[in-house]
Structures are given as C-alpha cells and as structure tokens.
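Reading is simple: each integer encodes one residue's backbone shape. The lines below illustrate:
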Amino acid sequence: MNGLAGPAWSAPVADRGGAADDPGSTPRLPVGGRPSGGATRSGPGATTSAAARMHAVADGRGGTALPVLAGEGPLALRSGRPDGGGARVMVVGAMSAPLGGDRLRITAEVGDDARLTVGSAAATVSLPGRDGEPAAYDVRLTVRAGGTLHWLPEPVIAAHRSDLRMTTRADLAHGARLLLRDEQILGRHAEPPGRLTTRLTVHLDGRPLLDQALSFGPGAPAGWNGPAVLHHYRAAGQLLLVDPSLTPDTLASRPLPADPAHGRAAITPLAGPAVLITALAVDGRRLRRLLDAGRAEIEEATGS
C-alpha cells in the first residue's frame, strides 16, 4: 500500500491531502482509541513519527467489517464503498511525508475469510530533510487462513537528495491470498533521483516465500544504474500474487511482450502457490501498463 513494505508499499502515503473515495465515510477507531492527528511538525527540519492500523474481519453475513481503522499525522485512513463483500481502505496524506528523519509505520491484518483492498490517494514522495537523515517507512501485513488482501498503493517517488529506507513484510497463513504491488520511480520529472532502499519479505505458512532487497540512487552499490540493473530506465516495480489456485505447471518463467526502448517485464513462478511479475520502464505510466499486462495474463491462465 507500502510498501504499504516493510517489502513495501508498496507504500501508500500521499504527498498531499486528498479526498477519500467515499466522501461520506468516516474513520473507525479501535475500542478505547483516540482520534488521529497525534503526529505534527513544529518547525523547519522537524521530523515526525506516525502509525496507522487497520483490521478487517468477516462479518458473518458474507461481508467484511473494519473494527480497527486508525491513523495519525500523514497516515490518514478512510474507508470506501464495499467491493463484492470486501472492505476498501484508502490512505490519504494529511501532510507531506516522508521527510528525512521521519518514522512511519502501517500495520494491516486480515482475519479468516475476510477480504480487504488497500490503495492510496496519490504517490508517496520521499523528500529530503534538513540534516540529511534517512526516513524510515515500515509496512507489516498479516493475512489469516482464507483471507484475501489486495495491497495496491501508488508508487514511491525518490525526489532529489532524499533518502528513504522502506521495508515491507507479509505473513500469510496457509490458504491466504495476497496481491501486492510495489513500484519505485527515481526522481520527479527531469530531476536526479534520491536514495531509495527497499526490502520485501513474504512468509507463507511460516516458511520464507520471497526476500528481495533493492537499492537505487546516490550511495547505492556500484552498478545500480548500469546495463545489468536499471540501465536507462527510471521506474522499477513488481507485482506479487499468492493464491492457493496457482500450481507449478500453471505458468512458466518467461518475458512479457514489450518494447525494450520503453520497458521490460518477466513472469517468474515462485516455490509455492505464487508468481512474481517484475518490470522496468522509462516512467511510471509504462511501468503500470507492464504490471497490469502481466496480471491479466496470469488471471487468464488461471481463470480467476
């Protein structure tokens, strides 16, 4: 979302405030909780620490309820219109974040047989702080047996001179389903990139499924912008699908049709009921097209 991520996430923090997809909805608070807004900036160079939590549970009537939905500072949460019995949450930025030195965290839990889709109102723009300290953004996702989580945040943009360390971790029970999108864009239009380090870790039924780290921008290991890694591309992303209906013979590892001048993508089945789509592109728009094309191909092959 992210992140959302820990491998993240995927990270669904908007750079500027925006409206929720359901203007009439209001945030839900945990029992004994307090309203959001505890994280503030007091002056130039000030940093903030903020957290957001959401918990989706099956309501016993074929739908999904959100007994916990609470955020603070730049992590404002809004519930949207239900989607086919599943709940929807939008992360809306209440102030610019992450800036250097900020500490942000999102936790999402999906209970047995519940369904949750999480998105963000705008891209997450990582901005430099006054002292050059890196920002940290952690995403923690948990999906119980029979639960489904679609974690689909907008991209993370590493603005010039920024430094963001992002981690996304997903813990999935046996029979859980996850669709996770993670996109990174190096720099805003016509500017050099900032530093961006991400790690995505996924465990399925207590066993490692995926553990991947990426590092781009000034100070990253040599070769990050060379022909063996990004080359001339400025956007990188991945789409992870974990679903019990996937079988080893459903899909084979292969590249997706693409114009190399604009981007490249590949589908890779993982050691489990999971498949990973990875893509590189010259910009975020073409990156999203490649990931969406890979998702459509998988859904056609599986009949989902």
Notes: The mean pLDDT is 85.
